[in-house]
Specification:
Layout: H1 2-9, E1 24-31, H2 35-50, E2 55-64, H3 67-77, E3 81-84, E4 97-100, H4 108-116, E5 120-123, H5 131-144, E6 148-150, H6 158-168, E7 175-183, H7 207-220, E8 224-232, E9 237-238, E10 241-242, E11 248-255, E12 260-266, E13 275-282, E14 285-290, E15 296-301, E16 313-316, H8 339-356, H9 367-386, E17 390-391
Parallel strand pairs: 1-2, 1-4, 2-3, 4-5, 5-6, 7-12
Antiparallel strand pairs: 7-13, 8-11, 8-17, 9-10, 11-12, 13-14, 14-15, 15-16
């Protein structure tokens, strides 16, 4: 069918669909039960009936910090078994895919152990804290020859995928500049105790937000060549304790293709609850997208069909008839998708790759992408301390 063939070309997840044949069950083992556990469980449940595919997710097991919590999550989301921790769950033959949605400091060892156990691995972003940890994770999945991905879910928002397609078609010419920011207000008030600020209460920093923006720049523009910038906390102490992790950053970057860029990440931006925003300027056109208004891609092209129509146009990316990405999976034209659909589309793509032995890249971020983002963030930290521009060395 022509629609399905087009969908396969953009990595949507149709493969060998034959409704008369049984679908391959792919057992999911979820490590973690919180906010992202809810998002991923929601995605796996919807994939089974929204995607015409030869595979279907099976919610095999979920694990948490206590058996009580694990059983509660299993009952709520529909998992068949409950475990404490990850060690026993990855021994379960019913689990083929290990999905780590635990806090950042619980990504490295569980994912490495799962890969060694022969499980395909999904890991929430940021993949981990620091380049050495990320390299160990990358080496583990590479040596185990399992499928792997980091859930940079915004790659799978229809407007972002359309931007990728337009850029790769040459519609905006050569890219000259990328501007991106990720702003939230959850670091306020500045005198909030450390244990009440989610990113200050972990082993990472506010740069977990920046990892999304950096991945968007690499996905849409290309590899980062060098970086300079400033990382800082906006309060020296919180609740009487010294602040050692940052609240935000600003940076200047240069890409390998010669384009320049600016990054901003801020967790003390009052009134911003979850704004990822970017602009991309090319020699023949420009694009812009805002997560707070996700179904619109702002487009300006040098060549317009009507001479009087100039400037940016808001394109509603909700029309299957216009070959807008993913929309033949979802609703009739004009009916919006939202934040959850990025996770659903991503995990559907990953499971298609598992079921049919496809390459996860370039559409989905792999552990190599996660490693490179970790290197960029660590180099930015070094550049901030040194007060100078530094090359990105993988």
């Amino acid at each position: 069918m022509a629609e399905n063939e087009q969908a396969k070309d953009v990595g949507i997840g149709y493969s060998n669909w034959d409704a008369t044949q049984p679908r391959k069950e792919i057992g999911i083992g979820m490590f973690g039960r919180g906010f992202m556990g809810k998002a991923h469980s929601n995605a796996f449940k919807k994939i089974g009936y929204m995607y015409e595919s030869n595979y279907i997710p099976k919610l095999a097991a979920i694990s948490a910090s206590s058996l009580e919590n694990a059983k509660s999550a299993a009952a709520r989301y529909g998992y068949e078994k409950a475990y404490v921790g990850w060690e026993d769950m990855i021994k379960d033959p019913a689990v083929q895919v290990f999905d780590d949605v635990a806090p950042d400091n619980l990504h490295e060892q569980p994912c490495i152990d799962a890969a060694k156990a022969g499980k395909h691995v999904v890991c929430e972003k940021p993949m981990t804290v620091g380049r050495e940890s990320a390299k160990r994770m990358l080496d583990a999945v590479t040596q185990a020859k399992v499928k792997h991905c980091v859930t940079f879910n915004y790659r799978f928002i229809p407007a972002v995928r359309l931007a990728w397609e337009l850029i790769n078609k040459g519609a905006i010419g050569d890219i000259v500049h990328f501007y991106g920011r990720y702003h939230q207000e959850y670091g306020l008030p500045l005198d909030a105790p450390l244990d009440q600020v989610w990113y200050q209460n972990m082993s990472g920093s506010a740069q977990g937000l920046a990892s999304h923006m950096i991945d968007q720049s690499r996905f849409l523009v290309g590899e980062v060549k060098n970086i300079m910038g400033d990382i800082r906390p906006y309060a020296a102490t919180r609740g009487g304790k010294k602040v050692v992790l940052d609240d935000g950053m600003r940076a200047l970057v240069e890409f390998g293709n010669g384009a320049t860029g600016t990054y901003e990440s801020l967790s003390v931006a009052k009134g911003r609850y979850n704004q990822l925003y970017w602009e991309i300027y090319g020699t023949e056109g420009s694009l812009a997208w805002d997560l707070e208004d996700p179904t619109y891609l702002k487009v300006h092209l040098k060549k317009t069909p009507v001479e009087e129509v100039v400037g940016f146009t808001n394109v509603s990316v909700t029309h299957a008839s216009a070959n807008h990405p993913f929309m033949d999976v979802w609703w009739p034209s004009g009916h919006n998708t939202g934040w959850e659909h990025g996770h659903i589309n991503l995990l559907a793509h990953f499971l298609d790759c598992v079921a049919n032995d496809k390459d996860v890249a370039p559409y989905c971020a792999t552990f190599e992408d996660g490693y490179k983002v970790a290197v960029i963030l660590e180099t930015l930290g070094d550049a901030s301390k040194a007060g100078k521009k530094m090359d990105i060395i993988y």
